[in-house]
Amino acid sequence: MGAVGPDPAVAAVRLAVRRTLGMIEVGDLVLVACSGGADSLALAGALAFEASRSGHRAGGVTVDHGLQEGSAERAAGVVAVMADLGLAPAEAHAVTVGTDGGMEAAARTARYTALDEAATRHRATAVLLGHTLDDQAETVLLGLARGSGARSLAGMPAVTGRYHRPLLELGRDLTHRACHAMGLVAWEDPHNRDPAYARARVRADVLPALEKDLGPGMAAALARTARMLRDDADALDDWAARVRAEAGTDEADGTVALDVSTLTGLPRAVRTRVIHRTAIAAGSPPGTLAAVHVEAVDALVTGWHGQSHVDLPGRVRVRRRYEKLLFGPSETR
User: Fold this and answer.
1) Where along this sequence does the record place binding of ATP (predicted)?
2) Which of 72, 127, 206, 262 has the most CB atoms less than 10 A away?
3) Is there a binding annotation on residue 39?
4) 173 is in an annotated binding site
């Protein structure tokens, strides 16, 4: 009788990791961000297995946000599991979560800061994140609720700099089965069920309701939509970057100028992207620069009737002068 292969769920997670490792130089260090939940724990187990065969070095990092009683002990337990898997380094990072943007956003900022520090210190080429197809679907729905544009609805990319998301094509139910098959006991974060958090409400109520009323496969359909929107958004962003480089000039007084006639001939989707890029280049913070601000500047191009100026976050002022849009500091800056 032939050898029995791995559990199908385990095989699927390992294959996803193997494909990611194929993009990384053999011998480089790859870290996995592991919370102890099923998604990241299955990812950690698959990374340890695949790296031992591919010639990559593999380590793991868990972040202790300090938001729940016993978090330090739980982080120590995750470190022990990662070390047992053969990941080295295997370490925990305690962070202080601020308040900017709400608890979820502040925790995410603190987490990525810790992961960046660990990757830099260990000279890791890549950090693997355990986001799944279900996480992608939730991200799309949250973007819809905010009235966001195509870039937000495009969800999370598979690769962002050093960060890789190998599991974006796999469902959360599969990672739970993979953990069980690998003998890994996952931790259930109570925040994932806390209705105070928008993502928890989407997970517990909205997606199940869509599955019930519209039929199964909604998470996969939303993730597929995100992939298509990402292709479209990437193409529009590339177009906008070319226009910004060709039509934008730096003036002697420190302002950034855009040629109005060039902007007028563009589709709105490209024109507003050019405006957005230029506003950020002039000093407007991307986290607070909103669609309403970009639309107000766009009106200086498409609805010009002598408006004085538009003020943007970051004390950036936009004026129309001599068929140019001038982005510069406001008078009170």
Assistant:
1) 35-40
2) 127
3) yes
4) no
